[in-house]
């Protein structure tokens, strides 16, 4: 049996396609007044039988079957599930009263650090802002268009934008522009299943259009309709399209003035001038070959239930997607082709199919839009789109698809392929607006699956009942009248049916609520309501579905900004932090199984069920039931109900306590599990002698105790945990209460040097730890004598403590070698000293060459070189690059003495890294060397002095701020050498040298972490070497050489203090090998008897480094 694709074949259901788009009347409406001519209409549409608002463009001249009468919807309101009422537990017998200590003493020692009040806790700022780089890289918008291409007010002579979105038409376009410059959508992909894409369309110029699109190789080709063999679907260039419609829909989604900057993947398959093909196979092809998951389908079919009837006869298996059609059938229906493909796209490929309901003014949706009736799981990835009839009067209602339907604005103006600015209406552009919104959601939350994106779009839709309640008198628009009122002299519009349209207040459309979907009303006409792209881009609007899963794996941070509503809850899975900033009223449980949930607003009546991961936040939650994972007090989270820890013994779960923060429980707290001290707040520090603080307070009392306690921060040791009555900010019991309300932790700080002892570290790691001890001990003394620290001092201590917290490998009392080195290096300014030593070593190399050059009297020379120098140390790398230009000249005086000078201009880049943490410097140096050389027969003796100005720009870690500082370099040296001619024709030129170089910076600078007061680098170097020259031809010399140099002394120091502290500390450089050997080869060519050019290469090695250099040179005698 073969697929039949012509309507003349008996029994085959052919799907004539049309764009779900209605053309209004050209670029603009004509306003007339009484006794003036009727409105001008484009000649192409003068003979239309439809009224002004009934014009539409049927691109396929498709037939119009008699619409299936819409079934009378019987509202079936769903009652919200009653709230779960927990039985009141049997009161726990009151514990034997404990005598109230006044003040607390005994087991508790150390100074008391009062927890910071909630008002003093600084919440993280998660505000999204316009990104300058996105704004800067936006394509130039097409002339005469607004962002999003909406003309709802202009085309309807209305104020609907104000009623729908509380702004003007231009104001809403500006908000959409800000939105796409806030969320980076450039990596997103969207498929436009339509009439093809022509990237030369004015709205596509500058847009992110794929070079190819899919289409059927030829009309009627069976392999464009067969799921098992779709080889007829090929890729062609996006240089032509069979119609305007595809470009216009693509423009709304991601044109140069569209809603997003997504990459557009087209399909040329629905215009009568195209070669056709199955639309869902086109989607599958784009998914398979390009990974596209969001598909815009602004096209329609028969507007009957034929597809649904055929699908029901296929014996479809919703679990596997397999069908078992009647083996005796005589033809293959369209449903037989598309149903398995729809199943594959949604259930296996995580695709989101967005499809228009159509433009026939029907009170129901039909065709493939009913696919979720075949499998309710299709609702995960299928959205139907209508349009509010206030904007487009002939939009088909959502109807039976209301549960997966949303309504979006229609009126649009953008460019046709012939360069004409075209205005039109329909559910086509409404669908494109939903697709653009899906791109925004996917880009803002890349972890979201098709179901999450769909639920976000539906759950954030505006409720039309709220819109109408805010404007009970309707909206400004055009009222249809059969004749003008007597004495009317205002503006009006006419149509070819003799009707008049006059401005005035228009009543809202009637909408029927057909269901309350777990807290949100759904209407027959508009489904979940009016699309709100801005709200959808802020995450979920509520939890209205069973089994909502938020798996944030792969996304370190995601933020939901909306006030979350609904009768249901969710399960948080996967790594990554999810933040709620709104005031939420959803009723279902919040189950945490992985990652972190941070609650920063008021979280209504939802019970937090912590099974894994972590609950934290700066706001309020209701009750907390914990069987695993962690609850963190870092943001002074408030539990308005009870806190119940019921973890199994031996499971690493319980309360993460940050010293100086306090978890407040308005009800009772039943304790268990582990109390894990992770760090401390920025107010006060845990001292070496010990400090205590309240980390949890239950206003109605504590029950039980923690099974054990520890500190996952290796810098701290918990010495005691006490359960006491409530204490004041001085650590004294309040009143005469005998009920234990507070959990107090006593901890002391360990020696940083001792903590990291035994860990394999980079060369400066131990020095960092020792200096940190020195600074922290001074802070201890100040806190003990003065009672408080400055905010900068607290901030520094907190940075250190956070760094040590990050060193933990996850196992108790075990440090990670990688993390320890990484965290210490974040606090390590050694690279400044290394950069200074790099300049010293580079200067020494140039000076050695000068010592040779100046021994040749009456000459000029120059050299241009580039070198790469890599140092490999334990747990660290240093990559150094340099470019140098040297020019010099010498002349001869009396008594065989030559004098000369050389100018060196160098650019040195240094980048040091410890397990991904990198510091960089860029150094510009300009130096002058002057010297003299005395001839002693075949030998020479040279001496020189040097001075250089050194300017450095440095950037530290991830800090984008750069600092600049200046320094000076001085040097002096002597060098002796001779020339030995051998019988083989090779001239050997041995030499020996000693030099001293010294660098010192000018003034101090602050990089945000360190105030660097002084950098000094000194090096004295001795060395021997030999150059060899072979005269291969009269004009060509071959050269080579070897050298060994040793730094007999090297002293580098960096005097600094950490920002906010007063303790001076000192650093040096990484201890690299002091002995280096090198070998070089080259060639010189005499361009004149006295002038030559050369090319050379050298390699330098040591025990921990290797370097290579290439250079070109010239020399001339006079």
UniProtKB/TrEMBL annotation:
MF term (GO), any: serine-type endopeptidase activity
Q: Where is this region: Disordered?
A: 68-96, 132-159
Which stretches are tagged as biased composition: Polar residues?
134-159
Which residues of this protein are catalytic?
A: 194, 245, 428
Which ranges carry the Autotransporter domain? 853-1118
Q: Name one GO biological process term.
A: proteolysis
Stated EC number for the protein is 3.4.21.-
What InterPro entries has UniProt attached to this entry? Autotransporte_beta, Autotransporte_beta_dom_sf, Autotrns_rpt, Peptidase_S8/S53_dom, Peptidase_S8/S53_dom_sf, Peptidase_S8_subtilisin-rel
Question: Which Gene3D superfamilies does the protein's record reference?
Answer: Autotransporter beta-domain, Peptidase S8/S53 domain
Q: Which residues form the signal peptide?
A: 1-33
Where along the chain is composition biased (Pro residues)? 68-80
Q: Name one Pfam family in it.
A: Autotransporter
- Provide this UniProt record's keywords sorted from A to Z: Hydrolase, Protease, Serine protease, Signal
Statement: the UniProt record of this protein carries the keyword Protease: yes
The similarity comment for this entry is:
Belongs to the peptidase S8 family.
Q: Write the protein's name.
A: Extracellular serine protease
Q: Which organism is it from?
A: Moraxella lacunata
């Amino acid at each position: 049996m073969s697929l039949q694709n012509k309507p003349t074949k008996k029994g085959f259901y052919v799907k004539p396609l049309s764009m779900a788009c209605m053309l209004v009347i050209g670029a603009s409406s004509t306003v007339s007044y009484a006794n003036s001519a009727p409105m001008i209409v484009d000649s192409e549409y003068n003979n239309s039988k439809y009224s002004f608002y009934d014009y539409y463009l049927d691109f396929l001249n498709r037939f119009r079957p008699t619409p299936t009468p819409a079934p009378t919807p019987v509202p079936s309101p769903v009652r919200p599930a009653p709230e779960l009422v927990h039985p009141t537990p049997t009161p726990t017998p009151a514990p034997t009263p404990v005598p109230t200590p006044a003040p607390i003493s005994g087991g508790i020692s150390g100074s008391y650090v009062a927890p910071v009040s909630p008002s003093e806790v600084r919440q993280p700022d998660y505000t999204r802002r316009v990104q300058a780089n996105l704004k800067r890289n936006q394509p130039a918008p097409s002339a005469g268009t607004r962002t999003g291409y909406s003309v709802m007010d202009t085309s309807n002579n209305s104020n609907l934008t104000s009623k729908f979105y509380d702004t003007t038409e231009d104001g809403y376009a500006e908000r959409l522009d800000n939105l796409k410059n806030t969320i980076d959508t450039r990596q997103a992909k969207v498929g436009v299943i339509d009439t093809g894409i022509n990237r030369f369309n004015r709205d596509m110029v500058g847009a992110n259009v794929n070079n190819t699109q899919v289409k059927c190789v030829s009309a009627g080709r069976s392999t464009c309709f067969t799921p098992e063999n779709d080889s007829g679907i090929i890729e062609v260039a996006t240089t032509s399209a069979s119609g305007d419609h595809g470009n216009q829909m693509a423009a709304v989604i991601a044109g140069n003035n569209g809603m997003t900057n997504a990459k557009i993947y087209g399909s040329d398959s629905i215009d009568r001038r195209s070669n056709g093909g199955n639309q869902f196979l086109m989607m599958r092809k784009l998914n398979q070959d390009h990974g596209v998951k969001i598909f815009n389908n602004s096209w329609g079919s028969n507007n009957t239930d034929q597809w649904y009837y055929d699908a029901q006869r296929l014996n479809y298996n919703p679990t596997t997607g397999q069908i078992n059609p009647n083996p005796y059938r005589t033809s293959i229906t369209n449903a037989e082709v598309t149903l398995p493909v729809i199943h594959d796209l949604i259930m296996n490929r995580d695709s989101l199919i967005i499809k228009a309901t159509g433009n026939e003014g029907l009170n129901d949706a039909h065709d493939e839009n009913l696919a979720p009736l075949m499998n309710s799981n299709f609702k995960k990835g299928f959205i139907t789109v209508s349009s509010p009839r206030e904007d487009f009067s002939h939009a088909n209602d959502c109807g039976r698809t209301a549960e997966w339907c949303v309504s979006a604005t229609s009126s649009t103006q953008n460019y046709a392929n012939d360069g004409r600015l075209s205005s039109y209406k329909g559910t086509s552009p409404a669908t494109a607006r939903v697709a653009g919104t899906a791109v925004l959601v996917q880009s803002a939350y890349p972890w979201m699956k098709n179901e999450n994106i769909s639920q976000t779009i539906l759950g954030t839709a505006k409720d039309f009942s709220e819109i109408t309640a805010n404007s009970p008198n309707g909206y400004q628009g055009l009222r249809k009248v059969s004749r003008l009122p007597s004495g009317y002299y205002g503006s009006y519009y006419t149509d070819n049916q003799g009707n008049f349209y006059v401005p005035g207040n228009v009543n809202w459309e009637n909408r029927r609520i057909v269901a309350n979907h777990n807290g949100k009303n759904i209407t027959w006409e508009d489904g979940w309501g009016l699309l709100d792209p801005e709200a959808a881009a802020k995450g979920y609007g509520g939890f209205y579905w069973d089994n909502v899963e938020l798996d944030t794996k792969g996304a370190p941070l995601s933020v939901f900004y909306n006030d979350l509503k609904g009768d249901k809850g969710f399960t948080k899975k996967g790594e990554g932090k999810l933040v709620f900033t709104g005031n939420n009223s959803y009723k279902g449980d919040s189950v945490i199984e992985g990652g972190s949930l941070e609650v920063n607003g008021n979280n209504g009546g939802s019970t937090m069920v912590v099974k894994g991961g972590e609950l934290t936040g700066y706001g309020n939650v209701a009750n907390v039931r914990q069987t695993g994972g962690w609850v963190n007090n870092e943001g002074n989270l408030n539990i308005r109900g009870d806190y119940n820890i019921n973890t199994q013994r031996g499971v690493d779960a319980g309360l993460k306590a940050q010293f100086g923060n306090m978890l407040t429980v308005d009800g009772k707290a039943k304790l268990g599990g582990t109390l894990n001290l992770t760090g401390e707040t920025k107010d006060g520090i845990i001292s070496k002698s010990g400090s205590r603080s309240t980390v949890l307070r239950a206003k109605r009392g504590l029950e039980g105790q923690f099974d054990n306690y520890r500190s996952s921060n290796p810098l701290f040791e918990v010495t005691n945990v006490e359960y006491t009555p409530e204490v004041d900010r001085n650590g004294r019991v309040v009143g005469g209460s005998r009920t234990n309300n507070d959990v107090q932790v006593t901890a002391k700080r360990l020696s940083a040097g001792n903590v990291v002892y035994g860990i394999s570290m980079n060369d400066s790691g131990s020095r960092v730890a020792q200096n940190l001890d020195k600074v922290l001990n001074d802070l201890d003394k100040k806190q003990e004598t003065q009672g408080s620290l400055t905010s900068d001092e607290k901030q520094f201590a907190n940075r250190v403590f956070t760094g040590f917290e990050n060193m933990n490998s996850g196992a108790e009392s075990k440090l990670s070698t990688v993390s320890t080195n990484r965290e210490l290096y974040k606090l390590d300014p050694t690279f400044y000293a290394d950069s200074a030593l790099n300049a010293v070593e580079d200067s020494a190399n140039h000076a050695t060459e000068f010592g040779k050059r100046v021994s040749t009297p009456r000459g000029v020379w120059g050299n241009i070189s580039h070198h790469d120098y890599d140092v490999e140390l334990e747990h660290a790398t240093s990559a150094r690059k340099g470019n140098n230009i040297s020019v010099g000249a010498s002349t001869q005086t009396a008594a065989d003495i030559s004098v000369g000078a050389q100018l060196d201009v160098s650019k040195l880049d240094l980048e040091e890294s410890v397990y991904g943490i990198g510091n960089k410097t860029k150094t510009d140096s300009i130096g002058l060397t002057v010297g003299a050389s005395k001839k002693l027969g075949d030998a020479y003796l040279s001496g020189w002095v040097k001075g250089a100005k050194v300017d450095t720009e440095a950037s530290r870690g991830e800090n984008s701020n750069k600092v600049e500082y200046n320094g000076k370099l001085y040097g002096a040296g002597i060098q002796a050498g001779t020339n030995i001619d051998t019988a083989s024709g090779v001239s050997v030129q041995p030499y020996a040298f000693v030099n001293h170089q010294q660098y010192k910076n000018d003034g101090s600078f602050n990089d945000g972490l360190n105030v660097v007061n002084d950098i000094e680098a000194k090096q004295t170097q001795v060395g021997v070497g030999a150059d060899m020259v072979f005269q291969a031809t009269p004009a060509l010399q071959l050269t080579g050489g070897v050298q060994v140099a040793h730094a007999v002394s090297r002293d580098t120091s960096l005097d600094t203090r950490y920002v906010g502290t007063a303790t001076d500390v000192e650093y040096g450089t990484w201890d690299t090998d002091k002995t280096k050997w090198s070998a070089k080869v080259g060639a010189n060519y005499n361009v004149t008897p006295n002038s030559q050019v050369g090319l050379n290469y050298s390699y330098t090695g040591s025990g921990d480094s290797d370097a290579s250099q290439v250079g070109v040179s010239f020399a001339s005698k006079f």
